[in-house]
Specification:
globular; 9 helices; binds zinc ion; alpha/beta; 247 residues; five-stranded parallel beta sheet
Length: 247
């Protein structure tokens, strides 16, 4: 009886919340038809998920069909310092719009939708039970003050909660800002990022398996430098998951 009543109350609380705060789909602008989520079913189906044919290290999608494990040219040229990175889907269309609203439009309520994608990615490509600690890619303090929150930290915290892992948003810090790196080649990107991060307390990462979380991976140089910093401080394994990946 008590269970029935609480289910009834939860449903009604959901209706009231929907009436007070309508769940508008960030993809099409219509009311969402998915309970508790903002992205509607149609828009969700339009996200191009990365499931197979991926570089076994960085997760880059192969140009053509592949049916065997492979390492991409970029990773063969400069081996990443993380052990594995994966993105949930292609950073385009609905997914890009969703991340932009979350990151620049203060649409913090999208964090559950975005964490769903990270959760699926973690389940598909990693052994979540092996993760000791979940860490966001840190923003520089100045940038964080401008934006008032670190979007990666919100996602990392929610992901850690769902998998019952420890969240740590303090140990890995950004110690300097970096120039934009769109025009740089791979080697220069590494140099550009060198020394951008620091570990405040090595005891928190020593011999641990760290899962890094960010919203978007583009060149992978940021995750690579985070991983280098964590490994230098003694981390055993560094994995990375992002919501989207640019090509
Ligand atoms: Zn939609
Ligand atoms: Zn690769």
């Amino acid at each position: 009886m008590a269970v029935e009543r609480s289910a009834w109350l939860t449903t009604w609380a959901g209706h009231v919340a929907d009436w007070l705060y309508p769940r508008v789909c960030p993809g099409c602008g219509a009311m969402s038809d998915r309970p508790g989520r903002h992205l509607c079913w149609d828009c969700l189906a339009r996200i191009e998920l990365y499931t197979q044919g991926l570089c076994s290290l960085c997760g880059r999608s192969a140009e053509g069909p592949v049916n065997h494990a492979f390492v991409c040219g970029a990773c063969r040229q400069a081996k990443p310092r993380f052990d594995r990175a994966r993105a949930a889907g292609r950073f385009a269309g609905v997914l890009r719009e969703q991340v932009h609203q979350f990151k620049y439009g203060n649409a913090l309520w999208l964090r559950h939708d975005l964490t769903d994608l990270l959760e699926g990615c973690l389940n598909a490509h990693f052994a979540a039970g092996d993760v000791d600690v979940v860490m966001p890619v840190p923003l520089h303090a100045v940038r964080q003050r401008e934006r008032s929150y670190n979007q990666a930290a919100l996602l990392a915290k929610e992901l850690a909660r769902r998998f019952d892992r420890r969240f740590d948003g303090r140990t890995l810090t950004r110690v300097r800002t970096t120039a934009t790196q769109t025009a740089l080649d791979a080697a220069h990107r590494r140099m550009n990022m060198l020394g951008a991060f620091a570990v405040t307390e090595p005891a928190w990462v020593r011999s641990r398996c760290v899962l890094l979380v960010d919203d978007v991976m583009t060149t992978g140089a940021t995750l690579d430098e985070c991983a280098r910093t964590l490994k230098k401080a003694g981390a055993r394994t560094v994995w990375a998951v992002t919501v989207g990946r640019g090509t």
